[in-house]
Design goal:
Layout lengths: L2 H7 L7 H12 L8 H14 L16 H11 L3 H7 L2 H13 L4 H17 L1 H7 L6 H18 L5 H17 L5 H24 L27 H4 L13 H9 L8 H4 L49 H10 L21 H16 L9 H11 L3 H18 L1 H11 L16 H8 L6 H14 L4 H8 L1 H10 L45 H20 L9 H13 L1
Helix pairs in contact: 1-3, 2-4, 3-4, 3-5, 4-7, 5-7, 6-7, 7-8, 10-11, 11-13, 13-18, 16-18, 18-19, 18-21, 22-23
Amino acid sequence: MSNYRDAYTALTAASSRSQVAQVLNSIADAPPLTLDDANRRTLIQSILADLPRSSSPKKSRLTTKDAAPALLALKSLGKNPAGSEAIATPVNLSALLACYSFYKDSPDASNEALRCIANAMLLVDSARSAFVEKTVGGGDFAVELLESFITAMVEAKSPSITDIIGSKLDLLSKTILSGTKFAREAMTDLLKFAFNLLLHYPRIVNESNNNEVPVMGEAWSDRLDGCYSPPITPHFWHPSPDLPRSARAPLTHVIHALITIPVSSALKPVWLPSRVSPMGTPKPPESSESSSKASRSSSSRGSSRAGSPTTGPGKDSKPGAFDRAWSALAAGRRSLSLSRPSSPLPSSNIDVLLRAYDLLDVSLSHYLPDTVDPDEASVRARCTKEMDSPLDDVMTPLVVLITRLCAADEGPRRRMREWLFPDDLDRTTLLESRADLLGRLLRLLQSTHHTKLKNSVGELLYAACDSDASTLSSFAGYGNVAGFLFNKGIMSAPPPPAGGSRAAAPDMTPSGQPIDPITGAVQREHVDIEMTEEEKEREAEKLFVLFDRLEKTGALPKENNPIRHAMQKAAGGQK
């Protein structure tokens, strides 16, 4: 829409500061899709051209007092790839560096200038090479900035960079809760830096061990302990009045950082709460659809999950760090740590799994309300409107975080099973038609539009069921997980769990009703349908064609084709 562009171009040098601020704030707060690419580029060029960058500026719509809100609006416009492409030109990058230098005494303005550059370099590959060109001088600028930072640290005899990050994240978490201006943006930027530090530094120190680049979340260095949970995750635990927040920064970046940290035995005192006894399984809060059940105690309630740093709007089709981490999970790799911290880490009562569960429940109930099909156009439209990102990109990291916890320890696996498949689970209706988290997860397994989330949900359920196909089928019903198991190379229905299995769903409800192993729901009596001989022949022909097609595609082994068995039996009887 051209409304924002028209409102800005209507300003003049004589406009009041309050009027200018109102227009700039409206641009900064504009929903992502309200501006088309052409108007977005025009606004970016106009704002940059109007921003004073010298002590004797020409008369324009903006003054030095407008710098902070103007650069904030510029950053908002640059969050879209088309906007970042406009910022990523050498001329505009130079202009933003000039803004940083000119407004150095105004942290709000100078920091926003750097954020505009950072977003452009994140979203646009060419911005990185343009930034270090001699005409821009970004390389020299970055070195000087780093040198001044290190000098300040040395002169002040400051603690290590990881200790600083940990303490600043803790402080910023409190300032966010108190509503401090720009605290959320500062937390987001610091978490981005922490994520890259946690991701790349362990790879560097472990590179000499082998030539293979470690998968995200498999390598660690004890020098990073200062960044470790709980300091890195305080915002993850605070209740939020406007959930779901898992699709919003800085929580998304907290989850990204958590995924980089191994769930090794040395770190389990922090990952897995000491207050949960081996046999104790606190339950998560009831979802809105099942609130009629008795409420649980607040001490046993928890939450959630969220998004991916390498699945943003960039155009690079190569698998990123997150994709490699997902591939490792899908391959069933159980060793989640290549190196373990040698220094002791403090124990914690923070329940990561419980909090993550709640966030996942609340977020999916928001974006997949009631029993909506995940592939409905309304779901994609809602995600695009509210997040400017597909559900795939935002929710998959949260699911991966839970999966990693379940794959690492029996305790989280047992708890997830009991939360998703409690003993009193109502199986009188089809599990995939439920309006709760279990129903949404099973419906996502059938999705065609959210393939990454679909696969990660399958791995989550698989890990929660001891990575055992029989256990998974017994709890969820083979029909609900057949496609996922087929993709894992399990071509036919697995046998029921052995008698000594650690986990298995009951084959009868508490009231004595048999449970159908295919649907996972109560077995219904089959009512004979009256059909003529011609109708029976037509239906038999349809079944023959269906099973023949499944056999030819390899989805059904020849020896498991019931139609072939019946034909062979009939042929044998005739002989």
